[in-house]
Design brief:
Layout: H1 8-18, H2 25-37, H3 40-56, E1 58-59, E2 66-67, H4 73-76, E3 81-88, H5 91-99, E4 105-109, H6 127-135, E5 141-144, H7 150-163, E6 169-172, H8 188-196
Parallel strand pairs: 3-4, 3-5, 5-6
Antiparallel strand pairs: 1-2
Helix pairs in contact: 1-2
């Protein structure tokens, strides 16, 4: 609760910032007071960006990535390999993979991972749509690129079980030691995966 010394618009913006992931009460206050001191144009620009975000973005009807046009530019691009689909948890994962400039296939965004603890089941994700895409044919390989944690592993195993009867090749991103990492600081699971994912030199 805010004291009566805090103006209502200020208190309201602090509360709204505080609802965002990773923003605690102190950061919410700092952001609010920064905007209060900033030129009015900066605040208007932020407000307009938020409104445009909600009004002009949609999910691609094919891959479910965030886009301004449906289908998205990746799905529309005739140069992309349509026989390969990379399955990721979130739109941010697509951005990370696109930065590598090494993957030229299509994507499928699940919008989360199976997590019974958080009440997220397979029906809450875009898994049904993935199976429908693969069932239509023309897909040679599905790359499961979910996060290497308990939820990501559970999601990958579930999807693998659904896709196996369809006769499509299902692969998983290799996991192991990061570039620049030291062996002594790696945990056992990472080291085991690094051994399993080794390849010819």
């Amino acid at each position: 609760m805010f004291s009566e010394a805090t103006a209502e618009p200020v208190a309201r913006l602090i509360e709204e910032f505080n609802r965002l992931p990773g923003i605690g009460p102190k950061t919410a206050q700092r952001l609010t007071y920064f905007l209060l001191r900033a030129p009015a144009e900066q605040s208007r620009s932020l407000a307009e960006a938020l409104i445009r975000l909600k009004e002009r973005t949609v999910f691609c009807s094919e891959c479910f990535n965030i886009t301004e046009e449906d289908p998205c530019p990746v799905c529309r691009n005739p140069a992309r390999d349509r026989a390969t689909i990379c399955v990721v948890e979130e739109p941010l994962d697509v951005l990370a993979l696109e930065r590598t400039r090494s993957y030229r296939g299509l994507y499928h965004v699940l919008h989360g991972a199976i997590s019974p603890v958080d009440g997220v089941g397979p029906e809450d994700l875009r898994i049904r749509e993935l199976v429908a895409r693969v069932s239509r044919g023309n897909v040679r390989e599905v790359i499961l690129a979910t996060n290497p944690n308990l939820e990501g592993e559970a999601t990958s195993m579930y999807i693998h079980g659904l896709l196996r009867p369809l006769g499509v090749r299902v692969t998983r991103l290799a996991r192991g030691l990061p570039v620049g990492g030291d062996l002594e600081y790696a945990d056992e699971v990472t080291l085991i995966r690094a051994f399993e994912g080794r390849r010819e030199m």
